[in-house]
Write a structure and sequence with these properties.
The protein is mostly helical. It contains 15 helices and no strands.
C-alpha cells in the first residue's frame, strides 16, 4: 500500500499547482480587501442611498424610506441642474484644453537640452504639490477685487482701472476658477507628456530631418502619432479628475455668485452637507459617475478605432 501511494504522487492539496494558486490568492487578498472596503462599499452605498430618503434623522432612527427615482427626478427638475450641467461642461472643457495645450507645449520645450532644465521642470511641479486648499487661499487673495495682486498689477499698467470682480462677478467667476484649475493641472500634463516624448526614438526625428521635414511636419507625422496612446491616458484621466473638482471651486467662489460657478460636484456637496439631503446628493453623485464612465468609454473606443485605421 505504501508503495502504491508513493507511485501515485502527492495529493492535490500538496501539489505545486495548488500551492501557487494559494500564494496568489494570499498576495491578492490585502489589495482586494482594501478595494472592497474603501471603494466598493462606498460606491454601492451611494448607489443605494440615491433611492432612499436619507437625511440626518436616519442616523438616529436608522430608517431611510425607499423613494425610487424620486431623488433623481428632484435633482434633474431643479432649476439649478441645467446651470450646473452647463458650468460642468464649460469648466471641464476649458480646463482640459488649457492644461493639455500648455502642458504639451512645455513638454516639447523641456525636451531640448539646456542649462537648468531639470531645475525649471521641478519648479513647475510646485502647483501640483501644494495642497489645494492652500492654493485656493492664495488665489483668492490674488483675485480679490479690492486688494488683489492681479487687479493692482492691471491697474498699474493701465489695463483695468475699475478693478473687475474676478470672484464676485457672474460673468467672470467661472472664468477665474477655470484659469486657476488650469494652473493646477499643468504639471500633471507636463509630467505625463514629457515621459511619453522621452520614449520616442531620436532616430525618427533625424530621418525626418534628412527627408526635409520641418518642425511642424516632424510634430505631425512623428511626434503626434507616437504620442497618441499617452495623450489618450492624459485626456481620460484629466476629464475624470476635472469633472469632479470640488475643493478649488469651494475655496474660490463656493459655487457663486448666483450659481455662476456651480457645478454638479459642488451642487452635490451643497445638497449633502449643507441641506443634509443625502439622497439627492447621492443621486447627483451617481449622475456625475455615469457621465465620467460614458465619456471614458466613448473616447477610448474612438481613439482605438483611429489607431487601428
Amino acid at each position: 500500500m505504501a508503495d502504491d501511494e508513493a507511485v501515485a504522487g502527492p495529493s492535490f492539496w500538496q501539489s505545486n499547482r495548488f500551492q501557487n494558486r494559494a500564494a496568489r490568492v494570499l498576495f491578492l487578498a490585502p489589495a482586494v480587501s482594501y478595494m472592497v472596503a474603501f471603494f466598493g462599499y462606498p460606491i454601492v452605498k451611494n448607489f443605494v442611498m440615491a433611492f432612499q430618503q436619507y437625511s440626518t434623522s436616519t442616523f438616529y432612527t436608522g430608517e431611510a424610506p425607499w423613494v425610487g427615482f424620486a431623488n433623481y427626478a428632484a435633482v434633474v427638475s431643479s432649476p439649478v441642474f441645467s446651470k450646473a450641467m452647463l458650468n460642468t461642461v464649460l469648466f471641464t472643457a476649458g480646463s482640459i484644453a488649457g492644461q493639455f495645450v500648455i502642458g504639451l507645449a512645455l513638454a516639447m520645450f523641456f525636451r531640448r537640452r539646456f542649462p537648468l532644465n531639470g531645475v525649471l521642470r521641478s519648479l513647475i511641479l510646485l502647483p501640483w504639490l501644494i495642497p489645494l486648499i492652500a492654493s485656493g487661499a492664495v488665489w483668492r487673495w490674488i483675485l480679490d477685487k479690492d486688494n488683489g495682486a492681479l487687479n493692482r498689477f492691471l491697474a498699474a499698467i493701465g489695463v483695468a482701472s475699475e478693478h473687475p470682480g474676478w470672484l464676485t462677478s457672474t460673468s467672470l467667476a467661472l472664468v477665474a476658477v477655470i484659469l486657476v484649475n488650469i494652473w493646477i493641472g499643468i504639471p500633471f500634463n507636463l509630467t505625463i507628456l514629457y515621459g511619453g516624448l522621452q520614449d520616442i526614438p531620436e532616430d525618427l526625428y533625424e530621418a525626418a530631418s534628412l527627408d526635409g521635414a520641418g518642425s511642424w511636419r516632424r510634430f505631425r507625422y512623428v511626434t503626434w502619432p507616437l504620442l497618441r496612446p499617452v495623450v489618450s491616458v492624459v485626456l481620460v484621466l484629466g476629464v475624470v479628475y476635472t469633472i469632479k473638482v470640488l475643493d478649488v471651486i469651494l475655496a474660490l467662489t463656493g459655487g457663486g455668485p448666483a450659481n455662476a460657478s456651480q457645478t454638479i460636484a459642488t451642487q452635490s456637496y451643497h445638497l449633502s452637507f449643507q441641506e443634509f439631503d443625502f439622497g439627492q446628493g447621492a443621486a447627483l453623485g451617481n449622475i456625475l459617475i455615469a457621465i465620467s464612465l460614458v465619456f471614458a468609454v466613448f473616447y477610448l473606443r474612438a481613439n482605438r478605432r483611429a489607431v487601428d485605421e
